[in-house]
Amino acid sequence: MIVQALMLFLHVASVVVWVGGMFFAYVCLRPTVVELLEPPQRLRLWGGVFSRFFIWVWWAVTLIATSGLIMFGVHDMAAVPVSWHMMLTSGAVMIGIFIYVVTGPFAALKRAVEAGNWNAGGIALNRIRQMVGINLILGFATIALATLGRYL
Fold first, then answer.
1. pTM
2. Is-contact 8 67, C-beta < 8 A?
3. CA 100/CA 109 separation, integer angstroms
4. 3-class secondary structure for the chain?
5. pLDDT tens digits for 128-137?
6. CA distances from residue 116 to 40, 51, 102, 108 in whole angstroms, order as listed
7. pLDDT at 82 over 90
8. CA distance 4 to 106
9. Could you give the angle at which helices 118-148 and 105-115 cross, rounded to 10 degrees?
10. Which of 56, 73, 55, 101 lies closest to 7 in space, CA to CA?
C-alpha cells in the first residue's frame, strides 16, 4: 500500500514539474521574452532555459514512466479502466515528442546559437514552440483522463 502511494506521489509530482514547466514557458515566459529581447538574446536565453528544464524533464519522464508502469503492474492489465490505457498512450506520445524536441530542434537551436546563426536558431525555436504547444495540450488531456476518466 505504501509503495502504491509513493508511486502515485512520484507520478503526480513529476507531471506537475513537466506540464507546469511547459505551461509557464509557453504562456508566461515566451510572450515576455518576445516583447523584451532581440533574437540573439532571446535565442541564448531559450538555450539556457531549455538546457536546465530538459534535465528536470528527463527525470520527470523517467519517474512518470516507471511509476505508471509499476502502478499498472499491480493490477491485472485487463482490469484497469480504459482511461488508464488512454493515459499510457498519451504519455507515450508525449515522451516521444519530448525526445524528438531534444534530439532534433533543441540540438539545432544549440548549434545555431553557438554559430551565431540567428535565422536557423529562430526556425529551431519555432519548432520547439510548436511541439511544446502540442505536448501542453496532450498534458492537459492526460490530466483530464487521470482525474475525470472514471466519470466519462
1. 0.94
2. yes
3. 13
4. CHHHHHHHHHHHHHHHHHHHHHHHHHHHHHHHHHHHCCHHHHHHHHHHHHHHHHHHHHHHHHHHHHHHHHHHHHCCCCCCCHHHHHHHHHHHHHHHHHHHHHHCHHHHHHHHHHHCCHHHHHHHHHHHHHHHHHHHHHHHHHHHHHHHHHHC
5. 999 999 999 9
6. 8, 18, 20, 12
7. no
8. 35
9. 150
10. 73
What are 34-80's pLDDT values in tens digits? 999 999 999 999 999 999 999 999 999 999 999 999 998 877 777 88
First to last CA, the chain: 27
Distance CA 100, CA 88 (A): 18
Tell me the backbone φ, ψ of residue 117, rounded to 5 degrees.
Answer: -90, 85
Query: Cα 100–105–99 angle (5° rounding)?
Result: 20
